[in-house]
Structures are given as C-alpha cells and as structure tokens.
Amino acid sequence: MKVHYECAPCFLRQAREALDLATDDEELKLKITSQIIDLISQRFHPGAPANEIGTDMHRTIKKETDNPDPYHRERKISNEIALKFLPEVKKLLKEDSSLKSYLKAAIAGNLLDFAALGLDVDMEALVLSAMHQELKIDHSSQLEEELKKAQNVLYLADNVGEIVFDRLLLEKLEEYLVKVTVALKKKPILNDACLEDALEIGLDEVADLTTTGTDSVGVIYKDVSLEFLELFYHSDLIIAKGLGNYEGLTEMDLKNKPVFCLFNAKCPPIAREVGVEVGDSVVLKL
After folding, report:
1. d(Cα 191, Cα 189) in Å, to the nearest integer?
2. CATH architecture assignment, domain 72-285
3. Side-chain half-sphere CA neighbours of 75 within 13 A
4. What pTM was estimated for this model as a whole?
5. Residues 147-157: pLDDT tens digits?
6. Which CATH number describes the domain made up of 7-65?
C-alpha cells in the first residue's frame, strides 16, 4: 500500500510512543525525533510504500536507543488481555461454529494493537464488540472453497495477543485437512508476534512455525528471507492477518496465488483504500 497523507502524522505519533517506551533520556528522544523527521522528509512522497517507511523508522528507534524491544511490556499486556476473555470468545464460538465465526474471532484479535490504536484504548471492549459485527467485506465463502482445494497453507501472523485468537482459527482449519505453517517475525518490532511468543501459547501444537527471516512491519519482498519467499510461493493458499501484512502484500507480485487478508480497518487510509468505514472488519481476497 502506498502512503496516504494521514500516514505522516501517524508515523510521528508512533515514533513518539515508541520513544517514550524505549528510553527516559529526553535529549536522546529529541535527537532521534530529528532523525525520524529527516527520514520521513526524505522518504515520504506519493507512491512510497507505507510499511517500508514504518519499518525503517522503528529500526532507527531500536538502534539509537539500544532497546531491541520497546513494546516489551505492551506485548505482555496484550497476551494477558487476550487470555483474560478467551473463555468468553470460546463460548460465542460454541454457539456458532462456522468458519466465518472463527474468522471473526481472529479479526477481533486484530484489535489488540497498541501500535495502530495508541496506548490508551479499551481493547477489551473493542474486541468483544468486533465479535458481534458482521463482516463489511465477506470473502469467507471463497476462502472456504480454496481451503477445500489446498494442501499447504501459509498463515502470516500479526500481533502478540492476537495470536491467542489465531490459535482458535488454526484449530478450525484442521477440519479442512491442510498443513498450516505460521510465519512470525524473527526479531521484535512494534508489538508483532515473534517465534517465542507463539511457543508461549502453544501455537506449535496446531501448526508448523517459521519466521519471515526479518523484523519488517508486515512483509517486504526485498527484506524477507529466501526461505520465506520459497515457502510463500510454494504454498497453495495465503491467509494474512493485520494491516502491516496487507500493506506489504499489495506491494508484492502474488503470481495469481489466492491471498486472503483478515483485518479490522483501524485507520482512515486502509478503510478508504478497501472501501469500508473505520472500525469495519473484512475478509478480503486480494
């Protein structure tokens, strides 16, 4: 996805929050903010890929503060929130065990996102509300048809906390007799899930686990490992969670591969681009 005008202030908002989490050194924060403004000034132009700028910005913050994981505490909070009301989500899934219901649960988990929504948001209320929403774009029947044909599925994970709900969907996918591999980040960036986060909740019990080979926001073709690209292009079906993966996948040559993006449209540029309102949930075939 290319940048929209709102992306610039959003980058600066994210930078401020990440810096406040990464260090208490006010002089260092001022110095790094100047670097971030220079980065945005040089890279922000019509046609620029949004997630590439975001990736370089957060890498700069991690490097300059010597803090490899500024969102460490928020990542733990996300897990705690997800596990806290997982029983209530499971109860809703017992009432409706359709694939669409499990997709909605996974998308509700996508709202556990401090990077996109900020640090002062009632995540619990948002997630439970999303479980009761209808999908604004609903390509779930097409996804189900592809699942019936597929043998190998690559599942691109997004955030910590969110992967608790992904596990529910992955268990549902077992009914389609597909081999699922979940790709996570090799190193922390924002609140994105890494391999150790997935192992913590037992995701390896329901799928094979791998990494993208890097710490980019979403997927960036020139940044991911060759091993990941080989897996990507040899998989029969791609299921991708979150805004970052949507941003990256729309910049890639998908080679007519069936790719489905599951996310909540948490910002105006994404909502405008796919034709929904902010806060709408979608299962979107690219």
Report:
1. 6
2. 3-Layer(aba) Sandwich (3.40)
3. 21
4. 0.93
5. 999 999 999 99
6. 1.10.8
